[in-house]
Protein backbone atom coordinates (compact mmCIF):
# COMPACT_ATOMS: atom_id res chain seq x y z
CA UNK A 1 0.00 0.00 0.00
CA UNK A 2 1.45 3.33 -0.98
CA UNK A 3 1.23 6.33 1.25
CA UNK A 4 -2.03 8.29 1.18
CA UNK A 5 -0.92 11.88 1.55
CA UNK A 6 -4.12 13.85 1.97
CA UNK A 7 -7.75 13.65 3.02
CA UNK A 8 -8.78 14.31 -0.59
CA UNK A 9 -6.78 11.32 -1.74
CA UNK A 10 -8.27 9.12 1.00
CA UNK A 11 -11.77 10.09 -0.05
CA UNK A 12 -11.16 8.73 -3.56
CA UNK A 13 -11.24 5.19 -2.17
CA UNK A 14 -14.49 4.59 -0.27
CA UNK A 15 -13.34 1.37 1.38
CA UNK A 16 -10.09 2.99 2.48
CA UNK A 17 -11.88 5.97 3.95
CA UNK A 18 -14.40 3.84 5.81
CA UNK A 19 -11.65 1.81 7.44
CA UNK A 20 -9.61 4.90 8.22
CA UNK A 21 -12.40 6.77 9.99
CA UNK A 22 -12.95 3.78 12.27
CA UNK A 23 -9.40 4.11 13.57
CA UNK A 24 -9.71 7.87 13.93
CA UNK A 25 -13.00 7.60 15.83
CA UNK A 26 -11.39 5.13 18.20
CA UNK A 27 -8.47 7.45 18.89
CA UNK A 28 -10.64 10.55 19.25
CA UNK A 29 -13.38 8.97 21.36
CA UNK A 30 -10.87 7.29 23.71
CA UNK A 31 -9.11 10.59 24.43
CA UNK A 32 -12.38 12.50 24.71
CA UNK A 33 -13.89 10.21 27.35
CA UNK A 34 -10.72 9.62 29.36
CA UNK A 35 -10.18 13.38 29.46
CA UNK A 36 -13.73 13.82 30.73
CA UNK A 37 -13.19 11.30 33.52
CA UNK A 38 -9.99 13.16 34.36
CA UNK A 39 -11.73 16.52 34.48
CA UNK A 40 -14.21 15.13 37.00
CA UNK A 41 -11.27 14.65 39.38
CA UNK A 42 -10.31 18.31 39.33
CA UNK A 43 -9.96 19.67 42.86
CA UNK A 44 -10.31 16.19 44.36
CA UNK A 45 -6.84 14.71 43.78
CA UNK A 46 -4.81 13.54 46.80
CA UNK A 47 -2.78 16.76 46.90
CA UNK A 48 -2.54 20.14 45.19
CA UNK A 49 0.56 19.26 43.17
CA UNK A 50 -1.30 16.26 41.75
CA UNK A 51 -4.29 18.40 40.90
CA UNK A 52 -2.02 20.66 38.86
CA UNK A 53 -0.31 17.77 37.06
CA UNK A 54 -3.47 15.72 36.48
CA UNK A 55 -5.40 18.68 35.11
CA UNK A 56 -2.52 19.44 32.75
CA UNK A 57 -2.62 15.87 31.42
CA UNK A 58 -6.40 16.03 31.10
CA UNK A 59 -6.15 19.23 29.13
CA UNK A 60 -3.48 17.85 26.79
CA UNK A 61 -5.62 14.77 26.26
CA UNK A 62 -8.63 16.87 25.25
CA UNK A 63 -6.28 18.64 22.84
CA UNK A 64 -5.35 15.26 21.34
CA UNK A 65 -9.03 14.35 20.96
CA UNK A 66 -9.50 17.61 19.09
CA UNK A 67 -6.65 16.77 16.68
CA UNK A 68 -8.26 13.43 15.83
CA UNK A 69 -11.72 14.98 15.44
CA UNK A 70 -10.15 17.50 13.08
CA UNK A 71 -8.73 14.67 10.96
CA UNK A 72 -12.27 13.31 10.75
CA UNK A 73 -13.59 16.72 9.82
CA UNK A 74 -11.09 16.89 6.94
CA UNK A 75 -12.43 13.55 5.73
CA UNK A 76 -15.93 14.98 5.50
CA UNK A 77 -17.33 13.38 8.67
CA UNK A 78 -18.68 16.72 9.91
CA UNK A 79 -17.60 19.58 12.10
CA UNK A 80 -15.18 18.61 14.89
CA UNK A 81 -17.41 20.14 17.58
CA UNK A 82 -20.44 18.30 16.25
CA UNK A 83 -18.48 15.04 16.22
CA UNK A 84 -17.45 15.60 19.83
CA UNK A 85 -20.83 16.75 21.13
CA UNK A 86 -23.66 15.47 18.95
CA UNK A 87 -23.02 11.76 18.61
CA UNK A 88 -24.95 9.57 21.01
CA UNK A 89 -23.43 6.58 22.78
CA UNK A 90 -24.23 3.98 20.11
CA UNK A 91 -22.23 6.04 17.62
CA UNK A 92 -19.12 6.09 19.82
CA UNK A 93 -16.08 3.83 19.43
CA UNK A 94 -14.20 4.35 22.71
CA UNK A 95 -13.11 1.36 24.79
CA UNK A 96 -15.75 0.64 27.45
CA UNK A 97 -13.26 0.48 30.34
CA UNK A 98 -12.42 4.14 29.74
CA UNK A 99 -16.03 5.27 30.14
CA UNK A 100 -16.89 3.83 33.55
CA UNK A 101 -17.43 6.22 36.42
CA UNK A 102 -14.66 7.25 38.83
CA UNK A 103 -16.76 6.04 41.73
CA UNK A 104 -20.17 6.64 43.21
CA UNK A 105 -21.79 10.06 43.32
CA UNK A 106 -21.24 12.70 40.63
CA UNK A 107 -18.47 15.21 40.19
CA UNK A 108 -20.83 17.84 41.62
CA UNK A 109 -22.25 16.01 44.63
CA UNK A 110 -20.67 13.38 46.87
CA UNK A 111 -17.90 12.28 44.51
CA UNK A 112 -16.72 9.14 46.28
CA UNK A 113 -13.90 8.59 43.84
CA UNK A 114 -11.22 5.97 44.09
CA UNK A 115 -7.65 7.07 43.44
CA UNK A 116 -6.64 3.46 42.82
CA UNK A 117 -9.00 3.34 39.84
CA UNK A 118 -7.61 6.65 38.56
CA UNK A 119 -4.02 5.39 38.80
CA UNK A 120 -4.65 1.95 37.31
CA UNK A 121 -6.91 3.13 34.51
CA UNK A 122 -4.78 6.07 33.48
CA UNK A 123 -1.59 4.05 33.62
CA UNK A 124 -3.06 1.23 31.51
CA UNK A 125 -4.60 3.74 29.12
CA UNK A 126 -1.44 5.75 28.56
CA UNK A 127 0.60 2.56 28.05
CA UNK A 128 -1.99 1.47 25.47
CA UNK A 129 -2.12 4.87 23.80
CA UNK A 130 1.65 4.93 23.39
CA UNK A 131 1.64 1.54 21.67
CA UNK A 132 -1.24 2.48 19.39
CA UNK A 133 0.32 5.80 18.41
CA UNK A 134 3.69 4.19 17.76
CA UNK A 135 1.98 1.72 15.44
CA UNK A 136 0.18 4.66 13.82
CA UNK A 137 3.58 6.13 12.92
CA UNK A 138 3.73 3.36 10.29
CA UNK A 139 0.24 4.07 8.95
CA UNK A 140 -0.44 4.38 5.23
CA UNK A 141 -2.35 7.61 6.03
CA UNK A 142 0.20 10.41 6.25
CA UNK A 143 -1.93 12.88 8.27
CA UNK A 144 -2.40 10.17 10.92
CA UNK A 145 1.36 9.56 11.04
CA UNK A 146 1.96 13.27 11.49
CA UNK A 147 -0.62 13.64 14.26
CA UNK A 148 0.68 10.53 16.05
CA UNK A 149 4.14 11.99 15.88
CA UNK A 150 2.93 15.28 17.35
CA UNK A 151 0.99 13.62 20.17
CA UNK A 152 3.92 11.35 20.99
CA UNK A 153 6.00 14.41 21.82
CA UNK A 154 4.06 15.01 25.06
CA UNK A 155 2.25 11.73 25.66
CA UNK A 156 5.27 9.87 27.13
CA UNK A 157 5.27 12.41 29.99
CA UNK A 158 1.70 11.41 30.76
CA UNK A 159 2.66 7.76 30.81
CA UNK A 160 5.65 8.59 33.01
CA UNK A 161 3.39 10.38 35.46
CA UNK A 162 1.05 7.43 35.97
CA UNK A 163 3.89 4.95 35.94
CA UNK A 164 5.40 6.80 38.89
CA UNK A 165 2.11 6.59 40.75
CA UNK A 166 1.56 2.91 40.17
CA UNK A 167 5.16 2.09 41.02
CA UNK A 168 4.84 4.01 44.29
CA UNK A 169 1.52 2.52 45.32
CA UNK A 170 1.69 -1.11 44.22
CA UNK A 171 4.29 -2.09 46.82
CA UNK A 172 3.70 0.36 49.62
CA UNK A 173 1.12 -0.13 52.37
CA UNK A 174 -0.96 -3.29 52.49
CA UNK A 175 -4.09 -1.29 51.79
CA UNK A 176 -2.61 0.40 48.74
CA UNK A 177 -1.37 -2.91 47.41
CA UNK A 178 -4.78 -4.52 47.78
CA UNK A 179 -6.59 -1.59 46.22
CA UNK A 180 -4.27 -1.53 43.21
CA UNK A 181 -4.46 -5.29 42.71
CA UNK A 182 -8.21 -5.34 42.90
CA UNK A 183 -8.43 -2.53 40.34
CA UNK A 184 -6.02 -4.44 38.08
CA UNK A 185 -8.22 -7.55 38.34
CA UNK A 186 -11.19 -5.41 37.35
CA UNK A 187 -9.27 -3.84 34.45
CA UNK A 188 -8.30 -7.24 33.04
CA UNK A 189 -12.00 -8.11 32.83
CA UNK A 190 -12.98 -4.87 31.12
CA UNK A 191 -10.17 -3.59 28.92
CA UNK A 192 -10.26 -6.32 26.25
CA UNK A 193 -12.29 -4.41 23.66
CA UNK A 194 -9.80 -1.55 23.67
CA UNK A 195 -7.43 -3.69 21.57
CA UNK A 196 -10.07 -4.52 18.97
CA UNK A 197 -10.09 -2.67 15.67
CA UNK A 198 -13.85 -2.85 15.14
CA UNK A 199 -15.97 -4.00 12.17
CA UNK A 200 -13.48 -2.77 9.57
CA UNK A 201 -10.53 -4.63 11.08
CA UNK A 202 -9.75 -6.57 7.89
CA UNK A 203 -9.56 -3.47 5.74
CA UNK A 204 -7.60 -1.60 8.41
CA UNK A 205 -4.94 -4.30 8.16
CA UNK A 206 -5.13 -4.83 4.41
CA UNK A 207 -4.77 -1.13 3.76
CA UNK A 208 -2.03 -0.81 6.36
CA UNK A 209 -3.81 1.87 8.31
CA UNK A 210 -2.85 0.30 11.63
CA UNK A 211 -1.27 -2.88 13.03
CA UNK A 212 -3.28 -5.86 14.20
CA UNK A 213 -5.19 -6.19 17.41
CA UNK A 214 -2.78 -8.98 18.47
CA UNK A 215 0.23 -6.74 17.93
CA UNK A 216 -1.31 -3.96 20.01
CA UNK A 217 -2.22 -6.35 22.80
CA UNK A 218 1.14 -8.12 22.87
CA UNK A 219 3.18 -4.92 22.85
CA UNK A 220 0.99 -3.49 25.60
CA UNK A 221 1.30 -6.61 27.73
CA UNK A 222 5.08 -6.59 27.32
CA UNK A 223 5.18 -2.97 28.37
CA UNK A 224 2.94 -3.16 31.45
CA UNK A 225 4.57 -6.39 32.65
CA UNK A 226 7.83 -4.49 32.98
CA UNK A 227 6.22 -2.14 35.49
CA UNK A 228 3.53 -4.10 37.30
CA UNK A 229 4.66 -6.34 40.15
CA UNK A 230 1.25 -8.01 40.07
CA UNK A 231 -0.30 -9.14 36.79
CA UNK A 232 -3.74 -10.76 36.93
CA UNK A 233 -4.09 -14.33 35.65
CA UNK A 234 -6.12 -15.13 32.60
CA UNK A 235 -6.93 -13.47 29.34
CA UNK A 236 -8.21 -9.96 28.89
CA UNK A 237 -12.01 -9.82 28.71
CA UNK A 238 -14.64 -7.28 27.64
CA UNK A 239 -17.35 -7.67 30.25
CA UNK A 240 -18.83 -4.25 29.59
CA UNK A 241 -19.29 -4.84 25.85
CA UNK A 242 -17.35 -4.04 22.71
CA UNK A 243 -16.92 -0.29 22.47
CA UNK A 244 -15.20 -0.57 19.09
CA UNK A 245 -18.50 -2.04 17.81
CA UNK A 246 -20.38 0.86 19.45
CA UNK A 247 -21.61 -1.12 22.45
CA UNK A 248 -21.57 0.91 25.65
CA UNK A 249 -22.80 1.18 29.22
CA UNK A 250 -25.31 3.76 30.41
CA UNK A 251 -22.41 5.46 32.17
CA UNK A 252 -21.34 6.76 28.78
CA UNK A 253 -24.81 8.22 28.23
CA UNK A 254 -24.55 10.09 31.51
CA UNK A 255 -21.11 11.41 30.60
CA UNK A 256 -22.28 12.57 27.17
CA UNK A 257 -25.30 14.32 28.66
CA UNK A 258 -22.96 16.41 30.80
CA UNK A 259 -20.38 17.01 28.06
CA UNK A 260 -23.07 18.21 25.63
CA UNK A 261 -25.47 19.95 28.00
CA UNK A 262 -24.70 23.53 26.97
CA UNK A 263 -23.88 22.66 23.36
CA UNK A 264 -27.22 20.88 22.99
CA UNK A 265 -29.15 23.77 24.52
CA UNK A 266 -28.65 25.48 21.15
CA UNK A 267 -26.66 23.69 18.47
CA UNK A 268 -26.89 26.59 16.03
CA UNK A 269 -25.68 29.27 18.41
CA UNK A 270 -22.11 30.53 18.49
CA UNK A 271 -20.68 29.86 21.94
CA UNK B 1 -6.35 35.19 42.04
CA UNK B 2 -8.24 36.66 44.82
CA UNK B 3 -7.93 38.49 48.06
CA UNK B 4 -9.17 41.47 49.87
CA UNK B 5 -8.07 42.73 53.22
CA UNK B 6 -10.22 41.51 55.99
CA UNK B 7 -11.52 43.58 58.81
CA UNK B 8 -12.43 42.50 62.25
CA UNK B 9 -11.54 39.44 64.19
CA UNK B 10 -8.69 37.11 63.55
CA UNK B 11 -5.34 36.66 65.16
CA UNK B 12 -4.17 40.09 66.16
CA UNK B 13 -0.45 40.00 66.57
CA UNK B 14 1.19 41.31 69.67
CA UNK B 15 2.35 44.76 68.89
CA UNK B 16 5.91 44.00 68.02
CA UNK B 17 7.47 47.41 68.10
CA UNK B 18 8.76 46.48 71.50
CA UNK B 19 10.05 43.00 70.62
CA UNK B 20 13.26 44.55 69.37
CA UNK B 21 13.02 48.29 68.75
CA UNK B 22 16.35 48.44 66.97
CA UNK B 23 15.60 45.59 64.57
CA UNK B 24 12.13 46.95 64.04
CA UNK B 25 13.46 50.38 63.07
CA UNK B 26 15.96 48.80 60.72
CA UNK B 27 13.21 46.66 59.18
CA UNK B 28 10.94 49.64 58.61
CA UNK B 29 13.83 51.54 57.05
CA UNK B 30 14.44 48.69 54.63
CA UNK B 31 10.87 48.42 53.43
CA UNK B 32 10.47 52.18 53.22
CA UNK B 33 13.56 52.27 51.00
CA UNK B 34 11.79 49.76 48.74
CA UNK B 35 13.91 46.77 49.73
CA UNK B 36 12.39 43.31 49.63
CA UNK B 37 12.15 41.13 52.71
CA UNK B 38 13.07 37.47 52.20
CA UNK B 39 11.82 34.38 54.05
CA UNK B 40 14.86 34.06 56.31
CA UNK B 41 15.16 37.76 57.16
CA UNK B 42 14.15 39.10 60.55
CA UNK B 43 10.61 40.44 60.50
CA UNK B 44 8.21 41.71 63.14
CA UNK B 45 5.68 39.18 64.29
CA UNK B 46 2.81 41.41 63.21
CA UNK B 47 4.24 41.49 59.67
CA UNK B 48 4.64 37.72 59.59
CA UNK B 49 1.13 37.12 60.85
CA UNK B 50 -0.41 39.63 58.48
CA UNK B 51 1.33 37.91 55.58
CA UNK B 52 0.36 34.42 56.70
CA UNK B 53 -3.25 35.42 56.92
CA UNK B 54 -3.24 37.27 53.62
CA UNK B 55 -1.30 34.69 51.60
CA UNK B 56 -2.91 31.55 53.01
CA UNK B 57 -6.32 33.06 52.33
CA UNK B 58 -5.20 34.04 48.84
CA UNK B 59 -3.80 30.55 48.18
CA UNK B 60 -6.76 28.64 49.52
CA UNK B 61 -9.12 30.92 47.59
CA UNK B 62 -7.36 29.95 44.38
CA UNK B 63 -7.94 26.32 45.25
CA UNK B 64 -11.54 26.73 46.37
CA UNK B 65 -11.99 29.01 43.36
CA UNK B 66 -11.33 26.08 41.04
CA UNK B 67 -14.50 24.38 42.27
CA UNK B 68 -17.20 26.74 40.93
CA UNK B 69 -15.52 26.84 37.51
CA UNK B 70 -14.95 23.13 37.55
CA UNK B 71 -18.71 22.70 37.51
CA UNK B 72 -18.60 24.04 33.93
CA UNK B 73 -15.38 22.47 32.67
CA UNK B 74 -16.95 19.34 31.11
CA UNK B 75 -19.98 21.32 30.00
CA UNK B 76 -18.05 23.95 28.05
CA UNK B 77 -19.89 24.15 24.72
CA UNK B 78 -17.08 23.53 22.22
CA UNK B 79 -13.72 21.80 22.09
CA UNK B 80 -11.99 25.18 22.09
CA UNK B 81 -13.92 26.36 25.14
CA UNK B 82 -13.26 23.07 26.89
CA UNK B 83 -9.53 23.52 26.36
CA UNK B 84 -9.68 27.17 27.43
CA UNK B 85 -11.47 26.59 30.69
CA UNK B 86 -9.34 23.54 31.49
CA UNK B 87 -6.20 25.63 31.04
CA UNK B 88 -7.63 28.37 33.19
CA UNK B 89 -8.66 26.19 36.09
CA UNK B 90 -5.32 24.42 35.98
CA UNK B 91 -3.59 27.80 36.28
CA UNK B 92 -5.68 28.64 39.34
CA UNK B 93 -4.62 25.41 40.99
CA UNK B 94 -1.03 26.24 40.13
CA UNK B 95 -1.41 29.67 41.74
CA UNK B 96 -2.81 28.01 44.84
CA UNK B 97 0.19 25.72 45.00
CA UNK B 98 2.65 28.57 44.51
CA UNK B 99 1.01 30.70 47.21
CA UNK B 100 0.68 27.89 49.74
CA UNK B 101 4.41 27.33 49.43
CA UNK B 102 5.04 30.99 50.24
CA UNK B 103 2.67 30.74 53.21
CA UNK B 104 4.27 27.51 54.40
CA UNK B 105 7.70 29.14 54.62
CA UNK B 106 6.24 31.94 56.73
CA UNK B 107 4.48 29.46 59.01
CA UNK B 108 7.51 27.25 59.53
CA UNK B 109 8.75 29.11 62.65
CA UNK B 110 5.38 28.34 64.26
CA UNK B 111 5.82 24.64 63.44
CA UNK B 112 2.89 24.68 61.01
CA UNK B 113 2.60 23.33 57.49
CA UNK B 114 0.26 22.55 54.57
CA UNK B 115 -1.78 20.10 56.58
CA UNK B 116 -2.55 22.85 59.13
CA UNK B 117 -3.78 25.10 56.33
CA UNK B 118 -6.08 22.34 55.06
CA UNK B 119 -7.34 21.56 58.55
CA UNK B 120 -7.98 25.26 59.20
CA UNK B 121 -10.00 25.41 56.01
CA UNK B 122 -12.07 22.34 56.83
CA UNK B 123 -12.67 23.57 60.39
CA UNK B 124 -13.77 26.95 59.08
CA UNK B 125 -10.88 28.87 60.68
CA UNK B 126 -9.35 29.82 57.36
CA UNK B 127 -11.70 31.78 55.16
CA UNK B 128 -11.86 31.75 51.40
CA UNK B 129 -12.98 34.52 49.15
CA UNK B 130 -16.66 35.54 49.14
CA UNK B 131 -17.11 35.02 45.40
CA UNK B 132 -16.35 31.29 45.67
CA UNK B 133 -19.23 30.68 48.03
CA UNK B 134 -21.66 31.56 45.25
CA UNK B 135 -23.58 29.21 42.96
CA UNK B 136 -22.81 28.98 39.24
CA UNK B 137 -26.07 28.48 37.42
CA UNK B 138 -25.27 28.76 33.74
CA UNK B 139 -22.44 28.83 31.23
CA UNK B 140 -22.61 32.62 31.42
CA UNK B 141 -21.45 32.37 35.04
CA UNK B 142 -18.30 30.60 33.85
CA UNK B 143 -17.60 33.46 31.47
CA UNK B 144 -18.43 36.06 34.05
CA UNK B 145 -16.02 34.57 36.57
CA UNK B 146 -13.23 34.85 34.03
CA UNK B 147 -14.14 38.34 32.98
CA UNK B 148 -15.28 40.15 36.11
CA UNK B 149 -13.94 38.06 38.99
CA UNK B 150 -10.49 37.64 37.46
CA UNK B 151 -10.75 41.27 36.40
CA UNK B 152 -11.27 42.22 40.04
CA UNK B 153 -8.35 40.02 41.02
CA UNK B 154 -6.10 41.81 38.55
CA UNK B 155 -6.99 45.12 40.23
CA UNK B 156 -6.20 43.92 43.76
CA UNK B 157 -3.08 42.06 42.77
CA UNK B 158 -1.62 44.77 40.59
CA UNK B 159 -1.91 46.89 43.69
CA UNK B 160 0.50 44.54 45.48
CA UNK B 161 2.99 44.00 42.66
CA UNK B 162 5.51 46.02 44.62
CA UNK B 163 4.79 44.27 47.94
CA UNK B 164 7.60 44.43 50.46
CA UNK B 165 7.71 40.65 50.92
CA UNK B 166 9.87 39.29 48.09
CA UNK B 167 8.51 35.74 47.75
CA UNK B 168 4.91 37.02 47.58
CA UNK B 169 5.81 39.86 45.25
CA UNK B 170 7.51 37.45 42.83
CA UNK B 171 4.60 35.01 42.96
CA UNK B 172 2.23 37.87 42.17
CA UNK B 173 4.27 38.88 39.12
CA UNK B 174 3.71 35.48 37.61
CA UNK B 175 0.10 35.22 38.74
CA UNK B 176 -0.83 38.61 37.31
CA UNK B 177 0.66 37.75 33.94
CA UNK B 178 -1.55 34.64 33.80
CA UNK B 179 -4.63 36.45 35.09
CA UNK B 180 -4.53 38.69 32.07
CA UNK B 181 -5.04 35.59 29.89
CA UNK B 182 -7.88 34.47 32.13
CA UNK B 183 -9.65 37.78 31.80
CA UNK B 184 -9.27 37.49 28.01
CA UNK B 185 -10.68 33.96 28.14
CA UNK B 186 -13.66 35.24 30.14
CA UNK B 187 -14.12 38.21 27.87
CA UNK B 188 -14.22 35.97 24.78
CA UNK B 189 -17.02 33.87 26.32
CA UNK B 190 -18.90 37.04 27.29
CA UNK B 191 -18.53 38.60 23.85
CA UNK B 192 -19.94 35.49 22.18
CA UNK B 193 -22.96 35.58 24.49
CA UNK B 194 -23.45 39.34 24.18
CA UNK B 195 -23.46 39.04 20.38
CA UNK B 196 -25.48 35.84 20.41
CA UNK B 197 -29.14 34.82 20.47
CA UNK B 198 -31.75 36.48 22.68
CA UNK B 199 -31.48 33.52 25.06
CA UNK B 200 -27.73 33.91 25.29
CA UNK B 201 -28.06 37.62 26.00
CA UNK B 202 -30.67 36.96 28.67
CA UNK B 203 -28.46 34.30 30.23
CA UNK B 204 -25.64 36.81 30.43
CA UNK B 205 -27.75 39.59 31.96
CA UNK B 206 -29.15 37.14 34.50
CA UNK B 207 -25.64 36.08 35.50
CA UNK B 208 -24.55 39.68 35.97
CA UNK B 209 -27.63 40.47 38.07
CA UNK B 210 -26.91 37.55 40.36
CA UNK B 211 -23.17 38.25 40.65
CA UNK B 212 -23.27 42.02 41.09
CA UNK B 213 -23.42 42.21 44.90
CA UNK B 214 -20.69 39.58 45.21
CA UNK B 215 -18.49 41.57 42.83
CA UNK B 216 -18.89 44.72 44.91
CA UNK B 217 -18.12 42.70 48.03
CA UNK B 218 -14.98 41.33 46.37
CA UNK B 219 -12.87 44.25 47.58
CA UNK B 220 -14.03 44.04 51.17
CA UNK B 221 -15.87 46.55 53.33
CA UNK B 222 -15.13 50.21 52.63
CA UNK B 223 -14.35 51.40 56.12
CA UNK B 224 -13.22 49.98 59.41
CA UNK B 225 -16.51 51.07 60.99
CA UNK B 226 -18.40 48.59 58.83
CA UNK B 227 -17.12 45.56 60.66
CA UNK B 228 -14.73 46.64 63.37
CA UNK B 229 -10.97 47.06 63.41
CA UNK B 230 -9.01 47.17 60.21
CA UNK B 231 -6.34 44.97 58.74
CA UNK B 232 -6.06 47.35 55.83
CA UNK B 233 -3.82 49.57 57.94
CA UNK B 234 -1.23 46.91 58.65
CA UNK B 235 -0.90 45.92 54.99
CA UNK B 236 -0.49 49.52 53.95
CA UNK B 237 1.88 50.38 56.79
CA UNK B 238 4.08 47.43 55.89
CA UNK B 239 4.02 48.29 52.21
CA UNK B 240 2.30 45.10 51.20
CA UNK B 241 -0.27 47.04 49.27
CA UNK B 242 -0.95 50.65 48.37
CA UNK B 243 -4.68 51.34 48.14
CA UNK B 244 -7.65 50.89 50.42
CA UNK B 245 -10.54 48.50 49.74
CA UNK B 246 -12.69 51.37 48.54
CA UNK B 247 -9.91 52.79 46.38
CA UNK B 248 -9.63 49.44 44.60
CA UNK B 249 -13.39 49.13 44.17
CA UNK B 250 -13.50 52.59 42.58
CA UNK B 251 -10.70 51.62 40.20
CA UNK B 252 -12.65 48.49 39.30
CA UNK B 253 -15.86 50.39 38.64
CA UNK B 254 -13.88 52.89 36.54
CA UNK B 255 -12.51 50.12 34.40
CA UNK B 256 -15.46 47.78 34.06
CA UNK B 257 -18.68 49.78 34.21
CA UNK B 258 -18.08 51.44 30.82
CA UNK B 259 -17.36 48.00 29.33
CA UNK B 260 -20.47 46.51 30.90
CA UNK B 261 -22.65 49.30 29.56
CA UNK B 262 -21.07 49.19 26.10
CA UNK B 263 -22.14 45.54 25.77
CA UNK B 264 -25.72 46.64 26.33
CA UNK B 265 -25.79 45.16 29.81
CA UNK B 266 -27.10 46.80 32.96
CA UNK B 267 -26.24 46.39 36.62
CA UNK B 268 -29.00 45.87 39.18
CA UNK B 269 -28.52 49.28 40.83
CA UNK B 270 -30.61 52.18 39.56
CA UNK B 271 -28.75 54.67 41.71
CA UNK B 272 -25.32 54.00 40.31
CA UNK B 273 -23.64 57.03 38.74
CA UNK B 274 -20.36 58.83 38.53
CA UNK B 275 -20.11 61.91 40.71
CA UNK B 276 -17.99 64.37 38.75
CA UNK B 277 -17.29 66.59 41.72
CA UNK B 278 -16.22 63.90 44.10
CA UNK B 279 -14.60 62.03 41.22
CA UNK B 280 -16.04 58.73 42.29
CA UNK B 281 -18.79 56.22 41.66
CA UNK B 282 -21.83 56.42 43.88
CA UNK B 283 -23.42 53.02 44.24
CA UNK B 284 -25.76 51.10 46.45
CA UNK B 285 -23.78 49.31 49.17
CA UNK B 286 -24.13 45.56 49.16
CA UNK B 287 -25.42 43.99 52.36
CA UNK B 288 -22.26 43.76 54.47
CA UNK B 289 -24.00 41.59 57.04
CA UNK B 290 -24.67 39.11 54.30
CA UNK B 291 -21.00 39.39 53.35
CA UNK B 292 -20.03 38.42 56.89
CA UNK B 293 -22.39 35.47 56.69
CA UNK B 294 -20.96 34.36 53.36
CA UNK B 295 -17.33 34.42 54.40
CA UNK B 296 -18.24 32.63 57.63
CA UNK B 297 -19.10 29.68 55.38
CA UNK B 298 -22.82 30.38 55.40
CA UNK B 299 -23.03 31.37 51.74
CA UNK B 300 -25.16 29.55 49.16
CA UNK B 301 -22.50 26.95 48.24
CA UNK B 302 -20.04 27.25 51.16
CA UNK B 303 -20.82 23.98 52.83
CA UNK B 304 -21.22 22.05 49.58
CA UNK B 305 -17.78 23.14 48.36
CA UNK B 306 -16.12 22.47 51.70
CA UNK B 307 -17.79 19.09 51.60
CA UNK B 308 -16.03 18.34 48.29
CA UNK B 309 -12.66 19.07 49.86
CA UNK B 310 -13.54 17.04 52.92
CA UNK B 311 -14.53 14.02 50.82
CA UNK B 312 -11.33 14.32 48.80
CA UNK B 313 -9.28 14.55 51.99
CA UNK B 314 -10.95 11.51 53.55
CA UNK B 315 -10.87 9.39 50.40
CA UNK B 316 -7.18 9.95 49.89
CA UNK B 317 -6.13 9.21 53.46
CA UNK B 318 -4.89 5.80 52.30
CA UNK B 319 -2.84 7.46 49.55
CA UNK B 320 -1.09 9.78 52.01
CA UNK B 321 -0.40 6.83 54.25
CA UNK B 322 0.93 4.78 51.33
CA UNK B 323 3.20 7.59 50.18
CA UNK B 324 4.65 7.77 53.67
CA UNK B 325 5.46 4.04 53.54
CA UNK B 326 8.92 3.26 52.15
CA UNK B 327 8.69 1.32 48.88
CA UNK B 328 9.83 -2.27 49.33
CA UNK B 329 12.09 -3.32 46.53
CA UNK B 330 12.27 -6.96 45.70
UniProtKB/TrEMBL annotation, chain A:
Q: Which domain of life is it from?
A: Bacteria
Record keyword Mitochondrion present? no
Q: Which GO terms describe its molecular function?
A: phenylacetyl-CoA 1,2-epoxidase activity
Cite the Pfam families for this sequence. Answer: PaaA_PaaC
The record, for InterPro entries, names: Aromatic_CoA_ox/epox, Ferritin-like, Ferritin-like_SF, PaaA_PaaC, PaaC
Q: What is this protein called?
A: 1,2-phenylacetyl-CoA epoxidase subunit PaaC
Reported EC number(s) for this entry are 1.14.13.149
From TrEMBL, chain B:
Q: Name one Pfam family in it.
A: PaaA_PaaC
The UniProt entry, under PANTHER family, shows: 1,2-PHENYLACETYL-COA EPOXIDASE, SUBUNIT A, PHENYLACETIC ACID DEGRADATION PROTEIN PAA
What is the protein named?
1,2-phenylacetyl-CoA epoxidase subunit PaaA
Q: What's the gene?
A: paaA
Amino acid sequence: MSLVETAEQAKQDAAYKEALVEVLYQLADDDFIISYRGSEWLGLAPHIEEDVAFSSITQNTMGHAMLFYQLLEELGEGDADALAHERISNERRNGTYFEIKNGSGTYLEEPQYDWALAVVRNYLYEAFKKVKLEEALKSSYAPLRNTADKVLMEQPYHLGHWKTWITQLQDSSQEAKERIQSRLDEAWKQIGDAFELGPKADDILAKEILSSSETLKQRWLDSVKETLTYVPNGDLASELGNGRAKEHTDQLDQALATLSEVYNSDREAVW
Amino acid sequence: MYNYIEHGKGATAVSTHQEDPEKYAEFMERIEAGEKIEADDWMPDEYRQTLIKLISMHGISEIMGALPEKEWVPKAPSLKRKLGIMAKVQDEMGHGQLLLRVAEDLMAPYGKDREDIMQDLLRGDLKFHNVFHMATKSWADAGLIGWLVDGAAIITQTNMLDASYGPYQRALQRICAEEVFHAQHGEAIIMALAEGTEEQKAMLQDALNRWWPALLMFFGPPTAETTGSSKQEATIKYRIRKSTNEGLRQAYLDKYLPRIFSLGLTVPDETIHYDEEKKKWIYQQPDWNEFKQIISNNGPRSQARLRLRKIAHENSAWVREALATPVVTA
